[in-house]
Amino acid sequence: MTKKPSKIVRSIEVSAIKRFQILIEKEKGSISLAQGVPDFETPSFIKEKAKEAIDKGFASRYTKGWGIESLRQAIAEKMRKDNKIKAEPENVLLTHGAIEASMATLLALLDPEDEVIVLSPNYVSHINQIRIVRQGAMPSFVSLDEKENRWQLNPEKIESAVSKKTKAILFSNPSNPLGKVYSREELKAIAKIALKHNLFIIADEVYEYFVFDGKKHISIGSFPEAEDRTISIFSLSKSYSMTGWRIGYLVSDKKIVQEIFKIHDCLITCPVALSQYAALAAIKDGYKFIKKFKQNYERRRKIAIEILSRTDKLTLIKPEGTFYLFPKINLKMDDYNFSLRLLKEAKVGVVPGSAFGPGGKRHIRISFGGEEKKLKEGLERMVNYVKRL
Ligand SMILES: Cc1ncc(COP(=O)(O)O)c(C=O)c1O
Q1: Tens digits of per-residue pLDDT, 120-173?
Q2: Ligand 1 contact via 97 beta carbon (within 6 Å)
Q3: Please, what are the domains in the chain?
């Protein structure tokens, strides 16, 4: 009899985003608003620096596992300036995207019996990452409350989800899929609970720069009471439109970084050398591109909100950040069936909200990271379709 893969692997499925992406690609003439990929090219000065690195032979060999010193240095400076996190190069670990940063963190911090509170609706991949570490067991989801036109954090709900086995609280800020930007009060409440129950805080901040309406992104790791227990995770994927370069990083207490490094070393040895030189250029000189991307997203958000407001069958809480919309569907079908029918009958691809944890039921996620013309057409098709239902 052929041997089977592990029980853990057999107990999980590839994320719904990936599964829907395959269905969307197969559907001729469809427009995908499913995947969170910016349509902008990586700025050319970044590519030039990468070419230079190849020519100088810098890209041919492994680098130090935690990343080249100049990049750790530049990130430490960026952390102090933009995130108000007290960081030295030793606090920084360069990773293969934010996805490796969160996987390595969870593997380093958790024993299989440990529980993780996930503020939900949440980033899809965190569910499988936690299940892999916990031998198949689900995270402890704490759903935000959708009320008064906002996604609200209820600290009492988090408190009541804490058990003797809870080891960490994980959330994304700004939130994928909600577009929520956590306020100082909300972050203080999370930090207070973490301190009281001695928990790690894992903060995924890959959309840190895409925050609208004059809102400010605050890093929970900048709070003195949270700095020694927080693992802050960042990425160049969205900030500089570099999803293909696979560069992210995490910042934490030096001792925690050393522990995570053991896992990172087993997973990837070192981040891609070429991408590290590209990242160095981006972090040093790329700010004006972030500003440009942000202005574009802000305009796309306005267009998207206007189109969705033409129907009351979709109710939307205005996203404060990211490039996602997470409307509720006021229809007599669940989000999964709706997403399938929308694809087949209106040729528009979205992601069913239940993929983002239990709190996502009866919602869909729409990305406005892609091309504007397609965004408009996709949303118009969607609105015309739901009006007919
Ligand atoms: C919240 C969140 N975290 C992490 C990632 C993964 O980012 P990376 O490309 O850096 O691995 C994404 C990508 O969509 C994301 O939305």
Answers
A1: 999 999 999 999 999 999 999 999 999 999 999 999 999 999 999 999 999 999
A2: yes
A3: 7-42+288-388 (3.90.1150.10), 60-285 (3.40.640.10)
